[in-house]
């Protein structure tokens, strides 16, 4: 019997906040699965995306960015990343290229490799993301430096934004995966339930619509998710959710004058939720105050951290 040419396994994407992990996941899947905003620390929980092609199934674990923890929420996010490193078969470390004298953040790259990737004992690849920002000669020099300094199995330079070398990354991952048959049907893009992505869409809109500390001090909890009027062919999905904030002043900003900001948030979120679910939605958003929720481990656990 000839060995199977198919490969499958779990791959963890790790890196700093805003390294482009979520954008890369979305590019690989050709589908917006992870929310993406210009602000760092948008991703708070592990998101599992499943890439399929004729020769492989790559179960991708998109992890929160690695940063210095300043509160219990950050510690919980880092534990999610540690758990993902334990669960995976292969690690892809994302290091973003940058303009200026230093082609990438060497100090963080050393921390990422020495404190996170190498201690896991897992095989790893380095992907230099945002390669579209710098000249090709800079990319080539950076790849050589990474290979000589950190000795990964391979180094590639990609652009999650424009799709550069994405196929090359898949070609590097495929032979390193351990299984010879898929774990999931080929029409499954993620193992997360619909209600998870509904909450993420609302959270993304908060990141995009509000400034300063507001996005970081909010959490979204789906309280109710059900169909109503089952005998009505025009029935809408009923979704009730709570936006959690820490202070009354934050609640006032989320709601806005006369409720205008909250209404705008609901309209933007509902439009994308309906596209996701492919059915009409009745969305209710309430704003609740939970003082210092980011520091309280019992609340964090109840919110899924």
TrEMBL record:
Superkingdom of this protein's organism: Bacteria
Stretches for region G4: 129-132
Entry GO terms, CC: cytosol; plasma membrane
GO biological process, one term: ribosomal small subunit assembly
Domain Era-type G: 7-179
GO MF annotation, one: GTP binding
G3: annotated span: 62-65
Stretches the record annotates as G2: 41-45
G1: annotated span: 15-22
Topology within the bilayer: Peripheral membrane protein
Keywords for the protein's UniProt record, in alphabetical order: Cell membrane, Cytoplasm, GTP-binding, Membrane, Nucleotide-binding, Ribosome biogenesis, RNA-binding, rRNA-binding
Ranges for region G5: 158-160
Residues at which GTP binds: 15-22, 62-66, 129-132
InterPro entries: G_ERA_dom, GTP-bd, GTPase_Era-like, KH_dom-like_a/b, KH_dom_type_2, KH_sf_prok-type, P-loop_NTPase, Small_GTP-bd
UniProt family annotation: Belongs to the TRAFAC class TrmE-Era-EngA-EngB-Septin-like GTPase superfamily. Era GTPase family.
HAMAP family: GTPase_Era
Matching NCBIfam families: era, PRK00089.1, small_GTP
Quaternary structure (record): Monomer.
PANTHER family (alphabetical): GTPASE ERA, GTPASE ERA, MITOCHONDRIAL
Function statement: An essential GTPase that binds both GDP and GTP, with rapid nucleotide exchange. Plays a role in 16S rRNA processing and 30S ribosomal subunit biogenesis and possibly also in cell cycle regulation and energy metabolism.
Name of this protein: GTPase Era
Record organism: Chlorobaculum limnaeum
């Amino acid at each position: 019997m000839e060995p199977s040419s198919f490969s499958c396994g779990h791959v963890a994407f790790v890196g700093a906040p805003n390294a482009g992990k979520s954008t890369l996941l979305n590019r690989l899947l050709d589908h917006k699965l992870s929310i993406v905003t210009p602000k760092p620390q948008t991703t708070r929980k592990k998101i599992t995306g499943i890439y399929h092609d004729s020769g492989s199934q790559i179960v991708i674990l998109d992890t929160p960015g690695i940063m210095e923890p300043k509160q219990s929420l950050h510690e919980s996010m880092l534990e999610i990343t540690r758990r993902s490193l334990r669960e995976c078969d292969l690690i892809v470390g994302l290091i973003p290229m940058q303009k200026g004298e230093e082609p990438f953040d060497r100090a963080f790259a050393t921390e990422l490799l020495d404190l996170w990737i190498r201690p896991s004992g897992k095989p790893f690849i380095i992907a230099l993301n945002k390669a579209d920002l710098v000249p090709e000669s800079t990319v080539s020099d950076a790849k050589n430096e990474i290979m000589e300094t950190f000795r990964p199995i391979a180094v590639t330079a990609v652009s999650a934004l424009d799709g550069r070398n994405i196929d090359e990354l898949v070609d590097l991952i495929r032979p390193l995966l351990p299984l010879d048959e898929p774990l999931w049907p080929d029409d499954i893009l993620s193992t997360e339930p619909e209600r998870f992505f509904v909450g993420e869409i609302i959270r993304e809109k908060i990141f995009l619509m509000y400034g300063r500390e507001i996005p970081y001090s909010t959490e979204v909890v789906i309280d109710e998710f059900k169909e109503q009027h089952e005998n009505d062919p025009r029935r809408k999905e009923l979704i009730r959710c709570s936006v959690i904030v820490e202070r009354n002043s934050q609640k006032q900003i989320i709601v806005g004058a006369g409720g205008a900001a909250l209404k705008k948030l609901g309209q933007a979120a509902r439009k994308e939720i309906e596209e996701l679910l492919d059915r009409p939605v009745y969305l209710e958003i309430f704003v609740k105050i939970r003082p210092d929720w980011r520091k309280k481990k019992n609340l964090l656990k109840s919110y899924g951290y």
